[in-house]
């Protein structure tokens, strides 16, 4: 009976780990398509917002990209917030933004992205607020394609598609690229069937009238985009709105980034919980499948590993010892590897560990409001 229970725990752990990436996509494909209502009319006005901290290396390309978008859309309002940069980022933005090209707001010190975005949103005047990151470049037709989706009055928010660059630079980059390709496909399916359950900061937009209030400790991307769903409007993804960003290549950078994001995501979940409970059943299912189950993936791996160890001990002490030796050797070799399958598997486990650590930190009351750009982009 105990052996059967251990096998069941092990199988359930494996299913839980695989759920967001295998079982959930299969279920989404079975759901019917929810069409958008075709409509004609003028494009809404728009404001593009981004926050920056010590992004001097990214600024020349970013500012050239914004200048190109401004040439294509003379009425596009562009606002930037500098979060106390010490590398001249604010000076670069101010120099390029002379004559009203970019409106620059500067904080007194480090106050965080969520705080900066709230200041920018309060200053913006466009009908649609477009959010992006300081190191992200948008394709020339991204604004046109994004605003065109707002012809449907039921659509309250539109996400773009993020294409990462530098997949072959390291095992960490390769794992990040694979993860994001899966994430993009999941969002495509969620959009086809109704609502995407949350945006990332690379490129997304909402109607300005839907912008919510929120504390600085949350993920503003997730909080702001979910306000669309809570308002009874559709949050959809546009494949032809393309943003490009370089992948993080260093394990340390990626680990710290995932811990920070996971901690803020859990605070966001706590902040949004009353509204999440009032969502439609299909949206609650999507949210749990793509977010909550994934956040605790590291815990499911630990539970499954413990069940496997106890089961091996009950079968044979030698078998258990061989398993422990094999796992120890993997971590020693995989920890030093920078390419190949062992390095890839190691980076996957590190990602799970970082996410679980961030969630546990947040559950213990720790908050993260500021960020540092990855040095290995």
From TrEMBL:
Could you list the residue ranges that cross the membrane?
A: 292-312, 317-335
What Gene3D superfamilies does the record point to?
A: Spore Coat Polysaccharide Biosynthesis Protein SpsA, Chain A
Q: InterPro entries attached here?
A: Glyco_trans_2-like (IPR001173), Nucleotide-diphossugar_trans (IPR029044)
Ranges for domain Glycosyltransferase 2-like come to 47-211
GO molecular function list: glycosyltransferase activity
Keyword vocabulary terms for this entry: Glycosyltransferase, Membrane, Transferase, Transmembrane, Transmembrane helix
Q: Which family does it belong to?
A: Belongs to the glycosyltransferase 2 family.
* Matches recorded under PANTHER family: POLY-BETA-1,6-N-ACETYL-D-GLUCOSAMINE SYNTHASE
Name this polypeptide is given: Glycosyltransferase 2-like domain-containing protein
> Which organism does this sequence originate in?
Sphingobium yanoikuyae ATCC 51230
